[in-house]
Amino acid sequence: MRTFIIDTQYLENYGDSNSTCYWKSKGGDSYKVTVPEGSRARNHAVAEIVQKLIVNSCGVEYITSITEVE
User: Fold this and answer.
1) Which of 17, 30, 60, 65 shows a CA-CA span of 20 to 30 A to 51?
2) DSSP 22
3) CA–CA separation, 45 vs 62, rounded Å?
4) Which pTM was predicted?
5) Which residue ranges make up each domain of the chain?
6) How are beta strands 2-13 and 30-35 bridged, if at all?
7) Is 51 exposed, middle or buried (0-12, 13-18, 19+ CB in 10 A)?
8) How many helices (H) does the chain have, and how many strands (E)?
9) Residue 52 — φ and ψ, nearest 5°?
10) What DSSP assignment string belongs to 36-62?
11) What is the mean pLDDT of the chain?
């Protein structure tokens, strides 16, 4: 098994409409993901986290770093 720490950043849109956007950083999260060994283990870990990320007109969460841990 391989374990990864995936850090994210969350941005919130404070704009008054879809045409006027004002994005502000509002924190983020760290996810610890353990996946089976393999040449695509990193991709597998990212795929598990992407399902949990927030993406809409009011906010977006994106991955800032991926670190493999022992």
Assistant:
1) 17
2) -
3) 14
4) 0.81
5) 2-69
6) antiparallel
7) exposed
8) 1, 4
9) -95, -10
10) -SSTTHHHHHHHHHHTT--BSSSEEEE
11) 89
